[in-house]
Amino acid sequence: MALSQSQMKRLTAVHGWSGTLLGLLLYVVVVTGTVAVFAEEIAVWSAGGMKTGEPLAVPLDRKVREIADLQAKGYLDRIAVFHDARGDLLIYPHTRVRHPESGELSPLGTLYRLDARTGERLSWHQGFLFDHPEWFKTSALEAFLVELHVRLHLPEPWGLIVTGILGLLVMFAGISGVLMHRHLFRDLFIAERPGRRLVSTRDRHVLAASWALPFSFLLGFTGSYFSFAGTVFFPLLADVAFGGNDEAMVQTLFAPPAGSDPTPAPLTDLDAVLIDAADRAGAPVTFIFIDRYGRSDALITLNHGPAPHRLGFQRSLYDGATGAFLGFKPNVGRQPSSGATLRGLMTPLHFGNFAGMASKVVWAGLGIALAFVTISGMQLWLRRREADLLWRRFGRAIIATAYGLPLAMLMSSYGYFVSRSWSDPFWWTPVSFVAGVLGSIVLGWVSDAWRLRRLFRVCLAIGCLLLPVARMASGGTAWAPALIEGQGTLLSVDLFLLLLGCGLWLWSRRPESDRGGDTANSSVLATGANE
Amino acid sequence: MTTALAIAVGLLALVLLAHRDPKRRRIFSLAKIPVRRTGWLLGVLFLPGLALLALGNPAGFVFWLGSLSVCGWGIAALSPSAVARNWLRLRSVLTSGRSMLRKRFVNTLPAWRGQTRLLERIAACEERIAVLEAELTTPRPSLNDKVSAHPKG
User: Using one digit for the tens of pLDDT, what is the confidence trace for A163-188?
Assistant: First the structure.
């Protein structure tokens, strides 16, 4: 599609201005998303406990039955059985009632935490589950980082709307970039040209954007779907197709088949169901729901991890009274459909968790490429306006954000580790992050550009190198017991942080003559330094 | 295993495509190589991915595509001079390591350092020459242009 000169000019202006206005926010979402790919590992690493074996492995039947027998009948509408990052077993018998504050239907019951091996009851809490994330989330750090990526910690529903718009921006930038850059395939192997010229800055932006193009579109699309699903799509669908009845829509699209026989009947052997389900799905069970416990129409729903060579996650259904396999439940509705298949693909394609750690590493690489595209795009825009004092100051803001965000994330980790032994980490983790952000802003304000980058790199290096020490000093598992117990995640994350810290330290020690290599618009930033 | 093999074949194809890319060679002042058809290389690049799909391994296909995107960026982002510099460094490290072993840990570190420094200086000189060449190739208004642009009278 050939564009006229004026069309090209307008498209360049929209591409550049949209990227410049929302680029820093987009960078925050992309970087936190890159880290959130490893949310499970961060939770295990920071929780400080020892995960021994699979918590949802057999024998499980007796543990669930003992808890269910303690409950009043009204709280046995549904029993959720899952585990946390520490490897403890969580059992939550509950019913759904209107929340007094929100007016929405919300789960109310008693959450039991059990030792997964012995079945010993460790603690219990009664109330609305989603009012107290600390009951079922063991790591405030993981919860904070994921929430920052998903909602930017903005109030409902604005956080999701903002991240949804940023997802759309990624898609728009990809499409407009392809239209603007006509030699996409011809320039696919053009590295940054030497000389730190404008064309060099352009080279590095175009190269990263070209290689990341298919996945930036994919990640932008799936991300905006997740953001807009709850805030726009489903409320609209409820209005259009269900006369505004949200509950009817949820029952039709997502809920398991409704019960029809309240006759009392004992639950089937849960262990036999678990073994059969794992065998049929070819993947371990990750979450269990038991609906209508103790009735003839009881239903067991089991979520599975990814099966080998498969993209979508599966959900198997069993008759709770007889233990008969009822089939795999589609992602949407009760009959297989292309819509259900597409929706089932959203999660693995956005999270990159379909092939274990290997696919997560690749997804993190794609996240790094997207973050690089965002920053290099803003640098290119800035390079063309280097004569203006205001834009030079914006250049300083780019450096402060690019380095300040990882620094603030490290600060939140320290806040979490330091506070977990004596105070509420769910409060101190975000507070430490804000302290890191404020510190980065102050650094960006007072220091010149070159010293600023060097200072940030040194701070990041020290922060990474000392974080494993802080983890162990605050009661986390030391390396020797972790090695004996086969705690691969703990050791891997610690080792990665140490290597990253060494790399950052070496980067900060690079001689002055190499300074042009790290950021494209060093001349802009250097002049900005001397204002 | 099939996915790993598909990725390895794809990476090899990407390296060869980058090495033969005519625009990349022209920009970085590399010697021209005879023009050959690269269609078969594109076949080598894409066929393993399509084979994964045909074998009913959609997860492998997406993983293959993601891996090639990330690694392709890494391969293309390394300029030929950076590749040469890193190769020289690696070779010097390997050579030094071998000679160190041969001399049974005789103190060869200062010599190795000197060699590395020398190689770094050569690489820096090469980079500077590339910059100057790029400046020379940039068209500038010549004296004749100015004369011809001047109104006659």
Answer: 999 999 999 999 999 998 888 888 88
